[in-house]
Batch of 4 targets.
Target 1
Amino acid sequence: MTTIAAVLNNLKKYRAPVGKPDLTLAAGRERQAGVLIALILDYSDDSVHVILTLRSSSLRTHSGDKMDESDESITSTALRETSEEINLPPSAIDVISIHKPAISMHKITVTPVCGVLSENIFFRELAESNQQNNSVTPDTLTSRVLSKLHANKAEVESIFTAPLLFFLKSRSHSVQVFFGINGEVTHKAHRFEYKDEYGRDFLIWGLTAYILVEVARIAFGRDPDFDTISADESTKA
């Protein structure tokens, strides 16, 4: 079985465990958020990549995207917010799994929604809209996708991609430990230092890193090369 086939199989059969209480039911609509984990499947080298963003420095938090009254579900929230932030059409995403919610440091229930980019729909829809980011030279599938995405500068500073398997590797991983006023450990956070295919440096940590590690574990059916952080230990920044 190819890597892509195995990843799709693992994600499609995944069912998030329901806690006590069910976080998605316990939180009111105004305390719920959805975040899209948008995957790019590159069959040319049997690899899986994830679309990521660097948040605008003017935003206080990156704790998912809150539900609107018009959202029918948390999936609708994740798709709508991603469309508003980076011009990714909801119709170009095939949702394949919904993951266990996490509680942010601001007490928001954040549900990861994992979806696969449909290349045909994506490029057709954005070709019809005649939008292209000419600052990126299309020479790989990921760069061709990036060339069609546009950051809403009020919310997003940069858009980039990373291999999903990167979030199971120890080479660029570290753990940041936070201490209280009495010297006790209050929480921990995964940190990944990442250089993309254009040489840009990014730091991926906190809630984003926590979610990506968990999704990668499920997708590839194995544990990371490093010790994981539990939901109770982790910061959800």
Target 2
Amino acid sequence: MHLAVKILNSIDPPVTSFELILVRMIITYVCSIVYMVATGVPDPFFGPKGVRLWLFSRGMGGFIGLYGIYFSLQYLSLSDAIVLSFLSPMCTAISGAVFLGEHVSARQIVASLTSLVGVVLIARPPFLFGNPERITSPDEDGLTKLALSVAMIGVLGATLAFTSLRAIGGRAHPMHSMVSFSGLSIVFSSIAMITAKTEFIVPAKPSWLAMLLMIGVFGFIAQYLLTLGLRYETAGRGTMAIYTQIVFATILQRIVLHTTPPPLSILGTLIILSSALYTAQDQTSGGDSIISHRKSGVR
């Protein structure tokens, strides 16, 4: 999806970040409401009363996180944006431990840090590895710094969203979280487009239009699976699975683009897979706990 966002941001005229969010979330909202109405899920629009504040924070954080990554993709390379967005799992592990009293272990911390090293080796962002052939103007440097700042704010937003999902747990249907996220995103992105008098761009090429629709459909599927997973897993371990995105991207690069990953990418992939297996062996009742479990305060 990030690759499609990057392409649509660079066409002439470009599809803005707010439009991409609006289209994606309209699809998500409609699918979620239809599912809940068809299956008889109660309170489809606002969710159960006991968790509505958490649902609101999930939607607010989700929108901020999504805008952060979409905006940064306009001015940063795909690898830079991906690396920055992958800071959220580590932040979520800390947030889940501090605010929800969830278990966090030395094993998780080590796996999280080593996974981030693997992501960096695969993406090889220019702001870390350097790119001496690239010459930028002061304006471009300013936009890059702005994109970096927005991306970091997006990391905080994603952390809020993931932590809220874990706090909600099984007290709301996964689709309730989807409706809150998509509904608030529709409202905020629409207000932003109206305020800025942003033109709604319909991509001219069928392939571009297909990418726009793909972002909506696959975005819905990805968010549903993430929400469902965080009902049963701690915030730290659950969001660690996000690191596997870069592994799948490397594999698809070989299959679709017919390019062989460089040695550093292969090494990074092995590091991430090893860290995931290492984390999977960690039990929440293990003896290497740094912060003890306190789920009773969340339920």
Target 3
Amino acid sequence: DTSSSHKINPSVYLADLNLGDKISGFGELELHSELKPSHTQDAFQDPPEGQDLDEWDFKNSSDAGINTRGQLYQYASEWQIRQHRNHAFTIFLFGEFVRFIRWDRAGAIVSQRFDYQKDATHLIDFLWRFSQLSDAARGKDVYVRRATEEEADMARIELKEWEPESKVQRPFIVFKIPVENGLDREFIAWHCLDEPDALTGRCTRGYPVYEAAKNEKYFLKDGWRAHSLAPEAEILLLLEKNKVEHVPIYICGGDVPNGVTQTDIFVTRKQRKEDSDERSSSPLTPLPSECDLDSSQCDSVTWKYGKESARVTQRFHHRFVTKDVANHLHKVSGSKDMMKVVFHAFIGE
């Protein structure tokens, strides 16, 4: 009933979760659903039969389509800000039709629409399969968890200097970083000094963190590096080895296991060849993708279409810890200190 004043939230959360008066809780969201009353509000458009799939503009350019697409993107971005995820899923219902969307830091894969009022098999099958997935398969970063009450109490004391000023409070979290000896190091975080406002790209986050096991405070940097760039952690180790001054002192971390995008796998043949040529000229050896399809299979996938307006870059999740904790520039005491910081940065570079 679209005339009702009640707001509907068809998204999926864990059982027994109380959202209170909130319409949606992106910090707790498991599966996002967006509901539009009319099929004219579709954010995308499927090609007619016989259309050249590589040249088809998949985006619906009507005002309603643009507004819906922007709303879907905004929700997905907010979801990724509130949680630590490798990917996420959306069920998009509009009128009698449904699409599935898979989001990651490289972009989105969107399904062909189908009429669920005539045949709901695909929708039922998707929901059943989703209910059987592990946290990792649902897209959650399994190397991040909520802090216990005891850990949160420690963080309030040890990270008091970086207490959030915003009224929007984020939960205390714990990062688990695998190290070479097979053991994990855990770092408690409270406030992110800078959060990304976009869904795709580097999406860098920076946290002052506290390691209870060593009673030490550090800085944790989290982001998504392009496949053509060397891991920053390795660069820091190289700089340290060559005794370069004024660079962060590396503690631990690197590429996060299984943290790799998949949207890039299904780009056009032309871009895949360009990416392949770029990789062959690079000294880096990218991590294997989670996709079960090789390049030739991806080329032959019949459902893949859409003219790409921007380059889709494969990205790897990169997270590491350094000794010195960063501060915002507004805490610089004066122009002399500011120039000193810039000078030291140039030396480090």
Target 4
Amino acid sequence: MEFSTEVPGLFHTLGETRLDVADWGRMLLYSNFPSRCVLERLTFCKATNGKQHEFIVLYFRHWNASVPTTARLVVDRAPSPSPKGNGSFMPMMHSTSSSALRTSALDSVTITPNTVHWETYLRTMYGPYKELCTLTFSATTSKSACPSASQISVLLFVISRHAPNYHLCKFQCYWFASTIWETIKQLFPGYTETAWNRGRSRCHGVKVDKADSVEVVCRKYTDEWTRFENEAEYTRAQQVSHLWIRAKILTL
């Protein structure tokens, strides 16, 4: 029996898709496969121009080992665009005006097509950038020590909900990227980490203040993951029930 290689929210042919982290999580909820697509590695990236925006790139293995492709997702935080504007923004171009000290945050996941040249794509989004560090999870790592796409979606949701407002001095892109990185390390210990390049949480050499939320986010994640598992099980049970009813009707 053949299965489609597409997995909504991870592997698809829709081209570039950008979702806020809550919508991305809801997309994964309605499929059995994201829980089987595990994180292969993640990179901590930093734009080298402008406000030196920091972002995370996630790489997921396909649930079917015979499918030689990797899902590449870009995760970052920016201030929500002004409703008076045209709705577009460049994520690294953060305003430094006093009105931007606290505003609603846009925490997003961008699902990218595998057909594009990766480095060129990221430079188009962020300008010149560099990779500061990489976490790698081996294919032989146990499931409890290696996160699935479903687990990462819940973690991103918890981080975003913990600080829903973008705050220039506490909860900016530096906080978001760093909190993702450190909570993954604490929750899923089956990784290897490369040496860090210089520049993390710095803007043109100046250290940027940010909140330390790792411990509280990890505690909240545990509770949210339990709730997610219950909801996912209920959703799958409803889908099976609907399919059974439809099959019975067709046999009448």
